[in-house]
Amino acid sequence: MHIHRFKLLVTGLFMVGLLSNTISLAQPKSVEIRVDLSKTKEPLKPIWGWFGYDEPNYTYMKDGKKLLSEIANLSQVPVYVRAHSLLVTGDGKAALKWGSTNAYTEDKNGNPVYDWTIVDKIFDTYIERGMKPIAQIGFMPEAMSTKPEPYKHNWSPGNQYNDIYTGWAYPPKDYKKWSELVYQWVKHSVARYGQKEVESWYWELWNEPNIGYWKGTVDEYIKLYDYTADAVKRALPTAKMGGPEVTGPGSESSARFFRAFMDHIASGTNAATGKKGAPIDFITFHAKGSPKLVNGVVQMNMGTQFRDIDKGFEIVASYPTLKNLPIIIGESDPEGCAACSEDLHPQNAYRNGTMYSSYTAAAFARKYDLAKSRGVNLLGAVTWAFEFEDQPWFRGFRDLATNGVDKPVLNVFRMFGMMQGNRVEVNTDLAYDFTKIKNESVRGERDINALAAKDSKSATVMVWNYHDDNVVVPASPVDVKLKGIPAQRVFVQHYRIDQQFSNSYEVWKKMGSPKSPTAEQISELEKAGQLQLLTSPMWINVKNGEVDMPFLLPGQGVSLVKLSW
């Protein structure tokens, strides 16, 4: 198809959009996005290919296995998975914010009893799909806890959050027994999966020890880290070990914890070995946004999340001997509680629809720039969202699928999975960059911007139309102008997430929001949950290395344009 015919087609679609839009007569201004494929930057690391969740036993349940297959298949590189409670004592039955493996118990004489059955079941599920674990070493087995009772909590979305921090959150009675447990786990993993495989994993200690997840002191966490890292390295010297998974480094108390840990790593006295410092191969912390309801409308706060990320990067960058280590943002999300459902927490009403997907596109794209500005090595950012087995349809948990049906947000990760090669230059005269969002969030005009990449035979441009306020607005005209295309003819595929495309939630609502969809309805929902093309793929001619692609992009919509040659 020639360029002028292509532009006529898109202009026709544009006019249909204008005529059908009855929300407002005032149309938003056109946004020009200029992409120069001849100006390549650093490789586009797959920082998005990291996921995690609280409930490890969902891993091998029916919808858990289905979703893990979906996640594994969206990426050309192995996806990493992080789960809590891998050493928690219990019967292996899942509950909200709870899981157990019974990996460690003791006989009547206090001797260790190791049982890796459930841990293996979890890791086998990953390995079978070509995924890899971020092996989280925690939490405290009941027989080791300094305050074992009460141990299991019974939390539900309406309960006080602090109800969850029970006996599993306490330090060990015996650090040497703890160290032996860790040693045995790593040795067992090498025996089961092979040294080369386990060398590709990431071992880490605990979760958010600066809040209720750790009932010990900062010094006790550091001591636990020393014993843990020593055990991991004794079992497999080439294993990758890291921490401390603090949350919210933008707060003063969290930053103090983080710095105390880093100071110890750099120059402290090791409690396990007596040597200087402690081994570390990667550094972890968490960063979350903070949505709220304003006059009945969900208002996100991406700026809060970015300030936490930036502070974490700043802290790492302040240690000359550590600043080049890989960083994994162990949880990187719009807010903090995946299991707090929309029905009881209305500020979380962004999760089922396209606001979650547009937020994710806009946020991940800027994490690259945040890391570059601080000169640190960002390896990955974990999306703390999975699935919740046997819950009501679209209840509004922070999840990627509901009852085996993918939600719109998962399709953003499918888009990211198609982006290969090096980043390429996108014009910088648009409304927002990472600095402005960090300082102001997205409260003025809309954030319409792009992330682009190129490899030897293709180019991809992801474009989003995001705003913190989840209000219905007219679609925005966008004109993507590409130059530096090294071909005379390209095959164009345009994928879209919006109210009509790649959106199982809107289809479910049109069905009447059935509480028990029929088999036929479930099949329709599954299809709607997949990433969909906006238009039929087409060949277009390239003139002087350039292609002009105008289209309408609805509010909270995301497009991915892929050119192949």
UniProtKB/TrEMBL annotation:
A single Gene Ontology MF term assigned here is: hydrolase activity, hydrolyzing O-glycosyl compounds
Pfam families, per database record:
Glyco_hydro_39
Protein name per its UniProtKB record: Beta-xylosidase
Highest taxon above the source species: Bacteria
Entry-linked InterPro entries:
GH, GH39_cat, Glyco_hydro_39, Glycosyl_Hydrolase_39
Q: Where is the Glycosyl hydrolases family 39 N-terminal catalytic domain?
A: 32-528
Write out the entry's keywords from A to Z: Glycosidase, Hydrolase
